[in-house]
Amino acid sequence: MNLYQFTVKDYQGKPVSLKAYENKVVLVVNTAIHCGLAPQYKGLEKLYQTYQKQGFEILDFPCNQFADQSPESDEETAMICETKLKNSFRPFAKIEVNGRNTHPLYQWLKKSTFNLLGSQIKWNFTKFLVNREGKVVKRYGPPVLPDAIAKDIEKLLK
To answer: Domain 3-157 in CATH: superfamily?
Structure first.
């Protein structure tokens, strides 16, 4: 399997095939706008602005499973991300990353990185780096800041 085999919903509820990201380096992140780690949005935007023209994308999946830190609707979350946080990367619909309703994308991401950090997502801002072939190459725990990922992104973009 690879990233391109999944379909997700955008913040308006429309299906999006991740095949649209084929041949791109992708960072998949579960986010929450009220999380103490939300300042990472700024670092994610910096990565996006730096590498997007070279074939880099960020897939932002809001998640409300950790301490109710993303309770807004998908549209409200997208508006906050765009206007308050000044993000230009695309937010998707809120998903679950753990439990019996785990989105299939996150089932695959966790299975692909089980030996790296365990099977469960521990908190918001867990990040998965996917290469141009759609395979997960690295998983980063929530405390890893976006700028610490830059060198790994650069290697995959070459």
So the answer is: Glutaredoxin (3.40.30.10)
